[in-house]
Amino acid sequence: MKYADKIHEDVDFLQRAEKAQSNAINRDRIRFLKLLKTGRANTQSAAGEAIGLGQRHAQRLWHTYQQGGFQALMVKPTRHSLGKLSSVQISHLRQFLFDDQAQRLEDIQAYLAGSLGVEYTIGGVSALCKRLKIKQKTGRPVNVRQRPGAIAFFKKI
């Protein structure tokens, strides 16, 4: 297959686009096309290997180029969603935690399932708390020899 005929952009355009590109992933994609266009790589696998891609990834890039052209390769990859909860549900969860109604991860799990209708495993609740920077709040330690009510008596004087 002659890739030089299949790639519509000329080498000068690819060179300028590669230098102008600040995103490293897109720069590699342009370099992939440039290697095929100039003939320095005879196959998709060779072009992919030259820029550090596997064979399957190179095939997917070529397929994307064939389907949508140069612009389809320059699309930024989308980020996946941050979880099952919307921003409103996260604010409800934060209010629930602010009111000190949860002592354990199981309590948070039950609240999510009962009030918000979202099912999480215990590990998922733990990951959610880490992602939202929710930390366990504990009181200060108390001396075991301290008499109950001694601090209140001391402060009254």
What's the short story on this structure?
With 157 residues, the protein is an all-alpha fold.
Describe the structure.
By secondary structure, the chain is mainly alpha-helical. It folds into two domains: 3-73, no CATH class; 87-131. The protein is 61% helix and 0% strand. Helix 3 (24-38) crosses helix 4 (44-50). It is elongated, with a radius of gyration of 29 Å. The chain starts with a helix and ends with a helix. The model has no long low-confidence stretch (mean pLDDT 87). This is Transposase. Pfam families: HTH_33 (PF13592).
**Mean of residue pLDDT?**
87
Helix content: 55-70%
N→C terminal distance:
94 Å
H-E order: HHHHHHHHH
Largest sheet: none
Shape: elongated
| Spatial extent as radius of gyration | 29 Å
How many structurally independent domains?
Answer: 2
User: Low-confidence stretches at least 5 residues in length (pLDDT < 50)?
Assistant: none
Structural class: mainly alpha
Strand tally, please? 0
Percentage beta strand: under 5%
Q: Output the number of helix runs.
A: 9
Domain Winged helix-turn helix: 100-156
Organism: Spirosoma utsteinense
Protein name: Transposase
InterPro entries: Homeodomain-like_sf, Winged_HTH_dom
Write the layout of secondary structure elements.
Layout: H1 3-6, H2 11-20, H3 24-38, H4 44-50, H5 55-73, H6 87-98, H7 105-116, H8 122-131, H9 150-156
Helix pairs in contact: 2-3, 3-4, 3-5, 4-5, 6-7
Pfam families: HTH_33
Domain Winged helix-turn helix: 100-156
InterPro entries: Homeodomain-like_sf, Winged_HTH_dom
